[in-house]
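Posting this for the archive.
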Amino acid sequence: MACLFFSAHWCRPCRNFTPKLVQIYTMLRNTGKNIEIIFISLDHDETSFLNHFKSMPWLALPFNTSLRRKLCSHFGIEHIPALIPLSETPSGGLGFEDDAVKLVEEYGVDAYPFSAKRRGELEAMDDARRQGGKLQELLGCKDRDYVISADGIKISIADLTGKTVGLYFGAHWCPPCRAFTKQLIEVYNELKILRPGSFEVIFISIDRSKEEFQASLSAMPWLAIPYSDTATQELTRIFAIKGIPALLILGWDGKVLKTDGRTAISAYGATAFPFTESRVSEVDEALRKEGDKLPRQVNDPRHSHELELDMAKAYICDECLQKGRHWVFSCKQCNFDLHPSCVEESN
């Protein structure tokens, strides 16, 4: 098969994608696949074309601005990089597939032969892994049936069976991840006491280096997929992770319970376990009923201002100095907070 590769040296996404394509092309050729790529330059001049082409092991059309305009028009090229697989029509003519750059970025060498049919096959396999409830197929690979702890101990994926599992996508360079990690550690440790052996978290690193990965994991009490493992990219793709931090919850049967575990953890903490939609609704309703029984304002002899009922993810009570969450009587002017129970006791 043959593909047309529209690219330019001035284009940063092109420079980032080209080494990936070189690696895939080399792997395919080394395993006997009959593939050829033809580079079509959108560079500004021939010198730039030659500089870009020297990093490529495939063929190229001579630098020709008139020809490339015709080819861009014929193949509907609106952005670069673009990788257009050529195909044969039912009548024996020359046809072509949709741009395969995204397919290659998502699936790597498995994307070959870069056709719509192949995309359908790969997406069906992703669906089967996502919905199958088999943790080894989801978290492991052919050469790995374990996850690791912060000190490098290998824990069999089979040991996770029957637990609620959180898949935590994060990175050390991401400030929101570092903030959420603290919340998740608090919930994790609380459930370790209240529901021992029922909840586990698997860290899936989006860090940019192994050093960053180690820095992330060293602050975490849970397990992780090894750094740069192929499962990281696969899980990010399978669950369509678009931003971090992200926490996806798998039930005891290995199937997805909740795709937005971060919101449940941040809003309700350990009380929302096992983080199902029904349990979150129960907690939400219980909080609503609790709030309905509380006055909107109170006067407390320990504070000169009226205290208003409010909702907070976390606070420290100025009376008992213990942590609190959800309902609080607060003076925003003085940053003074009381547990509802502490107000009741003082009054």
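The two ends are 82 Å apart (CA to CA). Residues 2-126 form a domain with the Glutaredoxin fold (CATH 3.40.30.10).
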